[in-house]
Amino acid sequence: MAAKFDFNDDNVVVIIGSGAGGGTVGNELAQKGVNVVVLEAGKRYDITDFINDEWASFAQLAWTDARTTSGTWRVAKNFPNLPAWIVKAVGGTSIHWAGASLRLQAHELKALTTYGHVAGANLLDWPLTLEELEPYYARAEDKMGVTRTNGIPGLPGNNNFKVFHAGAEKIGYKDCDTGHMAINSQPRDDRNACQQTGFCFQGCKWGAKWSTLYTEIPKGEKTGHMEVRSESRVLRIEHDDDGKVKAVVYVDKDGNHQRQKARVVCVAGNSIESPRILLNSASSKFPDGLANSSGQVGRNYMRHTTGSVYAVFEKPVHMYRGTTMAGVIRDEARHDPSRGFVGGYEFETLSLGIPFMAAFLDPGAWGRSFTSAMDDYPNMAGLWIVGEDMPQETNRVTLSATVKDAFGLPVADVHFDDHPNDVAMRNHAYAQGTRLYDAVGAIRTLPTPPYPSTHNLGTNRMSEKPRDGVVNKWGQSHDIKNLFVSDGSQFTTGGAENPTLTIVTLAIRQAEYIASQMTARAI
Amino acid sequence: MLERHGAHCAPQSPGRRLFLRRSSEMAFAAAVAIGSGGALINATEAWGLEVKGLKPETMKTLILMSRDIYPHDRIPDRNYAIAAKPFDEKAAADPKQKAMFENGVAELDMLAGPGGYVGLGWEADRVAVLHKISDTPMFEAVRSTLVVSLYNQKEIWPIFGYEGESFSKGGYIHRGFNDLDWL
Predict the structure, then answer these.
(1) In this predicted complex, what is the ipTM?
(2) Within 10 Å of residue A477's Cβ, how many Cβ atoms?
(3) N or C of chain A: less Cβ packing under 10 Å?
(4) What span, in angstroms and rounded, lies between the C-alpha atoms of A270 and A13?
(5) Residue A226 contacts by C-beta under 8 Å, 6 or more apart in sequence?
(6) Is the pLDDT of residue B18 over 50?
(7) What are the phi and psi torsion angles at A306 (to 5°)?
(8) CB–CB of A354 and B178 under 8 A?
(9) How far is A189 from chain B (nearest CA, A)?
(10) What is the DSSP secondary structure assignment for residue A158, as one 8-state letter?
(11) CA atoms within 13 A on the CB side of A365
């Protein structure tokens, strides 16, 4: 039975956001008997509401509130008000994600030590090691039902995977399979097995793909210690005279301003909204925003070095059938500077339907070169590049000086320029992806630019020293002991792996810490 | 990274040629007539389109411009007319939009010379004109609308071999998710 807490209950943990980070930390705390109030800006849907239609689903789920962009990234030109393709709904972007669940590599957690000083990059080691994270990774994999862990078989490969796998073998890659996916290959945890429907990005109508919407959140509610308030748009976090946070002010679904008192606040609104909330909470005591004595809030915005390669073959592929991300190649995920860049990248299959292929294949393109590629859609295979990008202080979420939201608060501006390392990595990946498809008979290959960001990271980063970042190794603000960051914005660096598994891992670990600190009356 | 072409082109997949092919390259100007009351009428494809905000001639030009921006020979004019409807709707709702489309098409006709844009028989000649206005707000408004209003028409998805919604059919687990056999 879902709980209902009083606005003046100052013993609750208030969590802003209900995605992979917020939903997980909320359930983990609720399981320990800690009372939590989850404030979610979006609506609450049921899986039966999800739509197998790209634009209709986008209209239903995507975060389309005003944002602005700047910088030299192509997204700023083609999608100036859509820097990120993320979700505004209970469950957050765990509704949209593709399910790839790879652990960070040991050396990636020591990026500065491993890569050395890279000009223009603000690299730093995580204040955490892989060894410290491993037990929590294991718990996250079990919770999420990740294939190829816990005795769970891998998913079967679809047509897109068959092409991908054959190409990988031909060019000598050794580490290619259907991935570690948080998609049920057999029924588990009261959820169906994958029916190879496609439309993973549009919300899994079978519930086969893990999402907090139908795992963590109902489980948390069942404890009687968790209340989820949907359509609750947070405006700011308030603090007391001692500088501890004490309440969260939000607009509820009826448009009324509410003020929920809090013992602890966890910010988990994804890497654009989380720093925005901290910056919009500036006060006379914290004139640069909460948790921002380092000046790092909003900085070091990372989005992974991405891109796609689509390839046309003589015979049909029908890549859209089955799981959207149906395979992973990890051969390029190593750190090997002889390739001309530091860090590594993964290849993962990807497909888009006709509506989104038209929008994203070569944004802004027109004429026969473009339409002849569209005409070859049934014979197309596709892959996505996801690699480590360099944190840069100037890649940054700031408050817009000109654009305000419906509540009069400045919207987020997202500034991004590729680092030369990002460009070198992407070009290497385009060339390798092209080689892979050429090796199995591609007659045309289409290097496709990055989509609006799905992996948004780093804007409230973890650091050992308070001057280098926003939070410590528990995701706890260096400045404010009862303020936590629970989403991907706490990543010190991005690694080459899809971030959700690590977000969940950190959330499980953070919940233990919060509960123990509360018991010890430290917070 | 440049797009790479092989030496040969992909053959049509089976079934594609079953779809209605549009009227011939030269015929658009004649195929779409302006009826009494200002509606556009295509007798061959048996469709009509009432024009509310723009001059019928302007709408006719925008339909051909839509095809020239995203040319798919197997898609009939009808679907380009549907894709162009938002331009007329925007013009009917907003005088500024109306002026943008009317002025933009007038510029196209001026650049095309005697006979105007629809009088240019070859796509290549019309595309050459489009390139001259491709950095204008009107062109970008047309293109960015079309990329949704054309490709989001479910009716044309089969032409691209795209099957759309699959949940109601039980996904593809028993319907060919791994039926590729040519590798």
Answers:
(1) 0.94
(2) 25
(3) N
(4) 18
(5) A2, A3, A26, A27, A29, A30, A35, A36, A37, A38, A217, A220
(6) no
(7) -125, 180
(8) no
(9) 21
(10) -
(11) 19
Q: Which of residues 265-324 of A touch B (CB under 8 A)?
A: 312-318, 320-322
Spell out the alpha helix ranges (H) of A265-328. 270-280
Alpha-helical runs (H) found in A229-341: 270-280
Query: Whole-model pTM?
Result: 0.95
Question: A369 pLDDT exceeds 50?
Answer: yes
DSSP state of A47: G
Predicted pLDDT at B17: 38
Whether the CB-CB separation of A92 and A504 falls below 8 Å is answered with no
Q: Confidence band (pLDDT; 50, 70, 90) for B9?
A: very low
The answer to whether B162 contacts A375, with C-beta atoms less than 8 Å apart, is: no
Are the C-beta atoms of A418 and A75 separated by less than 8 Å?
no
A168-177 pLDDT, tens digit per residue, is: 999 999 999 9
Q: Which amino acid is at A475?
A: G
According to DSSP H, which parts of A171-281 are helical?
216-222, 270-280
Contacts (Cβ under 8 Å, ≥6 apart) of A213: A18, A23, A44, A45, A47, A89, A90, A91, A94, A95
Cα(A262)–Cα(A260) distance, integer angstroms: 6
In terms of Cα–Cα distance, which of A257, A299, A260, A300 is closest to A409?
A257
Q: What is the pLDDT of residues A270-302, one digit of tens each?
A: 999 999 999 999 999 999 999 999 999 999 999
Nearest to B28 by CA among B78, B82, B85: B78
Q: Which amino acid is at A96?
A: H
Strands (E), A330-409: 345-349, 380-387, 396-404
Q: Residue A370: how many CA atoms within 13 Å on its side-chain side?
A: 21
Whether A197 and B171 lie within 8 Å, measured CB to CB: yes
Percent of chain B residues past pLDDT 70, beyond the cut: 86
Residue with tokens 């590599």: A105
B13, pLDDT greater than 50? no
Q: How many CB atoms lie within 10 A of CB B153?
A: 18
Are A359 and A131 a contacting pair, CB within 8 Å?
no
| pLDDT band at residue B22 using 50, 70 and 90 as cut-offs | low
- pLDDT band at A465; cut points 50, 70, 90: very high
What tokens were used for B41? 């009428």
By Cβ distance, the residue of A197, A321, A366 closest to B167 is A197
Residue A59: CB atoms within 10 Å: 11
Distance of CA A126 to the CA centre of its chain: 18
Average pLDDT, chain A: 98
CB A250 within 8 A of CB A233: yes
Of B2, B127, B157, Cβ closest to residue A367: B127
Q: A194 to chain B, minimum CA–CA distance in Å? A: 8
> Which residue of A77, A366, A430, A436 is the best one to mutate when testing the B interface, meaning the one whose CB has the most B CBs within 10 A?
A366
How big is chain A, counted in residues? Answer: 523
Residue A281 and residue A289 in contact, taking contact as beta carbons nearer than 8 Å: yes
